[in-house]
């Protein structure tokens, strides 16, 4: 899939530039700076008035042209739908002048996005030069702190296309984002650690104390050699500020400074500042100019669900690393080459993968979620996530366990952050009897959420703990959480389990089962029992490893019993179903009046919100988790494949035009997707069926597509991925914001699993094992990116040899797994030019001694 957007295809683009848990600024498809989400909360459809880049060209002291570095604003042009807007703004007044859309700009603009890098080009017949932009924030696997910087990085390149030398001025202007009565804007020049001059304007206020949630500042900076600046734009009425800025900017030569004393401020107002860089270019010459916009709003306040017992605020992680926005800007320029170099290594490694282009697009685009306001890093650096973002508040708090079950990017790219989620969960969300709250309350340490336990969230936590142990090989970490992990499994049959999940220890879930579709299922079903079975299997292995054989045997016995029952009793020959008699009122009447009133349809005498004989998208989701975690078989392999074929046949809709969707509309008209649940012909559909049943939610869709690919249904899975990404085309929706319950939705990071599915990636760092078995090659050639706790790199395979290249970190190998065909073809293995001793058992290649791989040592496997 081409990642180039022009014209109308740029309309919805907002590419997040920011750090993990530190907020971001959106780079719009036409070059505007939008969505200023730097205040520890979402801020969709916002703009920080008059903030923009502009460029002018001069020759012999005469202005040739001056333009804002934006492209056309895309229609509609009626203005924003703002209730209560002041006169001359809102709907019926056209776009805001503060968007700079009315100023001279560039006609030809191209946006190329390959997350984490955005590239833009600007051309205009009246402007004597070409301008290009590279924008990013460092994204470096395993380097969480360098990937969490509160700054947006901009590298501009200007090329003189004229026949005479030209002086170019590139100018960044920003608004002070917090209007107050005590505004200060202050220019400074500091020396970086390499002796370079860094020019800065810090925009802040003296209005608030250091602990106030509104306390903070932003800084615009450049390390250009020749600069001029205006600490303040002109203050006046009407449009005086923009009139004067454009008057000043169009004058030949340098900008003249303007200052106002803090004491002169008559009222709360919004001011702007500009920082300009000047370069002279000969005909055909090009040069680069670097800028950052950095921010520092260190105090997070739980405004969305205040703690009745104070305190209610805490310092975010980057606030413990940097004194102010100047400090983070200084760090950015001092380490720019390394940060960019490591980021481009990751980007090139990821995009060099030979998986289909649409898969790389889906995998990379959704990495943006962890650079969005969906996530926070708490004071000690621990990771916390909402489900997504509403316009100005996080959507559904608490690192929701059942949603974050699907998010596979973080555990492989930043495994330390992922493990911190397990640590918080088992420390603060675990009750004495093993019941887990599925939402973590902030500030840390406050009373747990009182909602009932969530079956897929609770047992998904066990699977994730198992996975995180295998990714890291850190058994001490596992031991620290094992008591709570074990209790979260045994809660299934605990006397205190009010939902009666498995009171008779059958190895299946019955009773009342809360789940990620926000209601409860009653009676056995493969979806939630699958999570239970996978947790039992993972628990058995962890218990045995830790020397608790009695527990291991108990868990394994329950797993085997439950697996047999699910395969025998819930598979109808085509797919897995829920076993329930919808007309049996006692199923819900046995709990409480609230349950009865919520779930009993008195008019039809039927239980509501169930699957029954429907074909559900997550019917074998536990096998997806098991495949990605190395757990092995949860359901019968032949039945899985049949169920996936049925799922594709029944639930995949190439066009939604003739479908009835009573729920949220994530695909429309001729857009395609795979819906949550269907009831095929000949099957009775409940009058009020499973919640969200007719929606197309990308995280579920990626799960289904990935599992299909894992199980050999490659074309079917790929068609689902294509349908999703065609919906996010830049015109209808933002390619870097897949939505569900709000923007930047965490579940969309299920797309990362597509990379694992195509590569057949296996790992077990407890045993020192890594493996690859591609499901699809091109003329025998395959290449993929991989990442684990101690290192990341590339795997390559062709008909003659395979290579494992560690680009960053290290990898200690004892066992290598390849496909049976490739394993049988191995003739020689080398590392650092030295032949290695090994033996082959089944598909496993065992080394005589540990093989240490790093950036200096490739593992080379020769085939006959």
Please, could you describe this protein's structure?
This protein has 864 residues and is of the alpha+beta class. The protein has 3 domains: 330 residues, Beta-galactosidase, Chain A, domain 5; 407 residues, Glycosyltransferase; 102 residues, Golgi alpha-mannosidase II (Immunoglobulin-like, Sandwich), CATH 2.60.40. The chain is 26% helix and 25% strand. It has 20 helices and 42 strands. The strands form 12 sheets. The chain has a 9-stranded antiparallel β-sheet with strand order 1-7-8-9-10-17-14-13-12. Strand 5 and strand 6 form a beta hairpin. Helix 11 packs antiparallel against helix 12. The chain is globular, with a radius of gyration of 29 Å. The model has no long low-confidence stretch (mean pLDDT 96).
Q: What does the radius of gyration come to?
A: 29 Å
Low-confidence stretches: none
Mean pLDDT: 96
Return the domain count. Answer: 3
End-to-end C-alpha gap: 35 Å
Count of alpha and pi helical runs? 20
Quick one: CATH class of the largest domain?
Mainly Alpha
What fold name stands as the CATH topology of the largest domain? Glycosyltransferase
Beta percentage is 25-35%
Strand order of the largest sheet: 1-7-8-9-10-17-14-13-12
* Strand count: 42
Helix content: 25-40%
How is the quaternary structure best described? single chain
Shape: globular
By secondary-structure content and strand pairing, the structural class works out as alpha+beta
Q: How many strands, what sense, and barrel or not for the largest sheet?
A: 9 strands, antiparallel
């Amino acid at each position: 899939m081409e990642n180039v957007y022009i014209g109308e295809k740029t309309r919805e683009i907002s590419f997040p530039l920011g750090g993990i848990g530190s907020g971001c600024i959106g780079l719009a498809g036409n070059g505007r700076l939008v969505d200023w989400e730097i205040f520890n909360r979402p801020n969709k459809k916002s703009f920080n008035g008059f903030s923009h880049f502009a460029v002018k060209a001069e020759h012999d002291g005469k202005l040739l042209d001056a333009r804002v570095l934006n492209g056309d604003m895309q229609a509609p042009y009626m203005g924003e739908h703002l209730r209560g807007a002041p006169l001359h703004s809102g709907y019926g007044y056209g776009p805001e002048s503060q968007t700079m859309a009315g100023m001279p700009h560039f006609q030809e603009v191209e946006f190329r996005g390959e997350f984490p890098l955005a590239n833009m080009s600007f051309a205009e017949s009246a402007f004597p030069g070409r301008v290009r932009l590279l924008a990013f924030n460092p994204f470096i696997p395993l380097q969480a702190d360098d990937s969490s910087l509160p700054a947006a990085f901009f590298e501009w390149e200007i090329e003189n296309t004229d026949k005479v030398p030209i002086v170019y001025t590139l100018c960044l202007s920003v608004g002070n984002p917090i209007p107050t009565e005590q505004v200060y804007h202050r220019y400074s020049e500091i020396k970086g650690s390499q002796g370079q001059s860094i020019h800065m304007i810090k925009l802040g206020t003296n209005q608030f104390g250091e602990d106030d949630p509104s306390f903070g500042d932003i800084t615009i900076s450049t390390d250009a050699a020749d600069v001029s600046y205006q600490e303040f734009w002109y203050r006046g009425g009407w449009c005086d500020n923009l009139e004067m800025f454009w008057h000043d900017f169009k004058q030949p030569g340098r900008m003249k400074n303007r200052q106002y004393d803090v004491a002169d401020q008559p009222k709360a107002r919004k001011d702007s500042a500009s920082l300009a860089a000047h370069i002279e270019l000969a005909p055909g010459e090009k040069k680069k100019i670097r800028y950052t916009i950095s921010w520092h709003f260190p105090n997070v306040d739980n405004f969305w669900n205040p703690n009745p017992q104070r305190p209610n605020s805490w310092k975010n992680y980057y606030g413990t690393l940097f004194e102010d926005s100047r400090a983070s800007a200084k760090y950015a320029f001092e380490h720019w080459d390394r940060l960019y170099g490591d980021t481009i290594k990751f980007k090139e490694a990821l995009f060099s993968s030979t998986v289909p282009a649409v898969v790389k697009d889906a995998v990379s685009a959704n990495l943006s979620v962890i650079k969005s306001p969906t996530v926070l890093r708490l004071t000690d650096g621990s990771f916390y996530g909402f489900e997504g973002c509403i316009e100005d508040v996080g959507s559904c708090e608490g690192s929701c366990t059942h949603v974050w079950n699907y998010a596979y990017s973080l555990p492989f790219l930043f495994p330390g952050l992922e493990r911190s989620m397990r640590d918080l969960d088992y420390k603060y969300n675990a009750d004495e009897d093993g019941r887990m709250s599925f939402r973590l309350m902030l500030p840390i340490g406050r009373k747990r959420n009182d909602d009932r336990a969530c079956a897929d969230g609770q047992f998904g936590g066990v699977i994730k703990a198992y996975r995180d142990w295998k990714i890291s090989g850190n058994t001490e970490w596992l031991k620290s959480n094992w008591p709570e992990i074990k209790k979260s499994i045994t809660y299934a049959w605990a006397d205190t389990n009010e939902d009666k999940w498995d009171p008779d220890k059958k190895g299946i879930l019955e009773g009342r089962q809360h789940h990620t579709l926000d209601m409860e299922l009653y009676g056995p079903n493969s979806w939630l029992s699958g999570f239970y079975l996978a947790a039992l299997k993972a628990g058995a292995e962890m218990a045995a490893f830790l020397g608790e054989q009695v527990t291991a045997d108990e868990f394994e016995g329950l797993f085997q019993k439950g697996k047999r029952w699910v395969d025998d009793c819930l598979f109808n020959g085509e797919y897995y179903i829920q076993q329930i008699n919808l007309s049996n009122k006692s199923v819900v009447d046995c709990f409480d009046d609230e349950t009865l009133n919520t779930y009993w349809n008195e008019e039809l005498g039927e239980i509501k919100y169930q699957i029954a004989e429907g074909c559900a998208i997550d019917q074998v989701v536990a096998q997806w988790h098991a495949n990605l975690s190395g757990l092995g078989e949860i359901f019968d392999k032949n039945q899985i494949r049949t169920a996936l074929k049925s799922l594709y046949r029944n639930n995949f809709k190439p066009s939604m035009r003739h479908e009835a969707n009573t729920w949220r509309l994530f695909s429309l008209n001729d857009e395609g997707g795979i819906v949550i649940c269907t009831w095929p012909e000949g099957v009775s559909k409940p009058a009020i069926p499973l919640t969200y049943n007719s929606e197309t939610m990308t995280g579920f869709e990626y799960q289904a597509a990935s599992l299909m690919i894992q199980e050999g249904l490659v074309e079917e899975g790929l068609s689902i991925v294509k349908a999703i990404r065609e919906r996010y085309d830049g015109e209808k929706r933002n390619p870097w914001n897949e939505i569900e319950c709000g923007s930047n939705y965490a579940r969309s990071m299920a797309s990362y699993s597509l990379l694992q599915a195509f590569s057949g990636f296996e790992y077990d760092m407890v045993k020192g094992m890594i493996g690859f078995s591609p499901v699809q090659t091109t003329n025998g050639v395959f290449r993929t990116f991989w990442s684990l706790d101690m290192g990341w790199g590339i795997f390559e395979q062709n008909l003659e040899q395979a290579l494992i290249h560690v680009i960053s970190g290290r990898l200690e190998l004892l066992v290598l797994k390849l496909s049976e065909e490739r394993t049988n073809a191995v003739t020689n293995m080398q590392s650092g030019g030295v032949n290695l001793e090994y033996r082959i058992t089944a598909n496993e290649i065992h080394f005589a001694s540990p093989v240490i791989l790093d950036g200096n040592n490739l593992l080379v496997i020769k085939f006959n």
